[in-house]
Amino acid sequence: MNTCSPRDDFVTGQDGLRLHVREWGPRASAALPVVCLPGLARTTADFETLAQALAADIRTRRRVLAVDSRGRGKSEYDRNPTNYSLAAELADLLAVLTATSIAKAVFIGTSRGGILTMLLGPARPTAIAGCVLNDIGPVIKPTGLARIKGYVGKLPEPESFEAAADGLARLFGTQFPKLTRRDWLAFAQRTFKQAGERIVPDYDPQLATILEQVDVENPLPPLWKELDSLAGSPMMVIRGSNSDILSAATVAAMRERRSQLEVLEVPDQGHAPLLAEPETIQRIAEFVAACDAREGP
């Protein structure tokens, strides 16, 4: 069997919900595993290109996992939408790490997945050998929150994936001005799924309840303490140059607290960078390899 071909597995979460885990690479690799955590309404599909590249690297043959949070992708939807909370999702992540025998890993978290990574610091600091925060930091810009609040759980059902691509291009085109028609169609196929004769978002629409309590006029509590809990681990932050979630000022403030912080700004992309370009993948691979070297043999 080709160990770089993806494998799908399911883990029982902390309250019995079925959680989907997609995995690449050999489970017995001596290299540090990588755990990928998607954004709020995103799925493991966002990491296909990156995960395949990291797992196929002939120097390491690394194990890579991506996790669908409850209510997203192939994970079970929760009948109680109040459970779509960071506390429940952190408990789910801990259950996944235990079930998959991940004692220590490099975590790559996009947006909400990056928040979960920061929360994992105080909860299980020994699990983090390094972390990549994709377009997220301790301070979240309210303009971006308002935009996300405006569409999560409210996307109309398109008649086709081509129509879905058109809708996504209208919604995100100013943040991703260089994406081609093929790119938008691929984005649509990562965002929607076929459900019988319907094409629907690949997440529970009840995720919108997460955002009902968000007051975009009042900033969310900053996560500087959680960021500082990761002080013992290498960190890389990726920012889309057009991001309306992570500001350049927040990245600068992060760098002031962490002189060794590695920063990558992706041009012509917004929230969140796609992590699919060769240059971005190469930088992430180099960062992960450096975490390996730091851990030693």
Description:
By secondary structure, this protein is α/β, with parallel strands linked by helices. The protein has one domain (about 5-145, about 220-295): Rossmann fold, CATH 3.40.50.1820. It has 10 helices and 10 strands. The protein has an 8-stranded mixed sheet, sandwiched between helices. Strands 7-8 form a two-stranded antiparallel ribbon. Strand 7 (about 190-195) and strand 8 (about 200) form a beta hairpin. Helix 2 packs across helix 3 (about 110-125) and helix 5 (about 160-170) crosses helix 6 (about 180-190). It is globular, with a radius of gyration of 18 Å. The chain starts with 6 loop residues before the first strand and ends with a helix. The relative contact order is 0.15.
Topology:
Layout: E1 7-12, E2 18-24, E3 34-37, H1 48-56, E4 64-67, H2 86-99, E5 105-110, H3 112-123, E6 128-134, H4 142-151, H5 161-172, H6 181-191, E7 192-195, E8 198-201, H7 208-212, H8 224-228, E9 235-240, H9 248-257, E10 262-266, H10 278-295
Parallel strand pairs: 3-4, 3-5, 5-6, 6-9, 9-10
Antiparallel strand pairs: 1-2, 2-4, 7-8
Concise description?
36% of the residues lie in helices and 18% in strands. It is an alpha/beta fold. The protein is globular and about 55 Å long.
Q: What is the string of helix and strand elements?
A: EEEHEHEHEHHHEEHHEHEH
Distance between the termini: 27 Å
How many strands in all? Answer: 10
Report the β-strand fraction as a percent range.
15-25%
- Large-scale geometry: globular
Rounded to the nearest angstrom, the radius of gyration is: 18 Å
Q: State the share of residues found in helices, binned by percent.
A: 25-40%
Sheet with the most strands, sense and barrel status: 8 strands, mixed
Query: Any idea what the CATH architecture is?
Result: 3-Layer(aba) Sandwich
Contiguous helical run count: 10
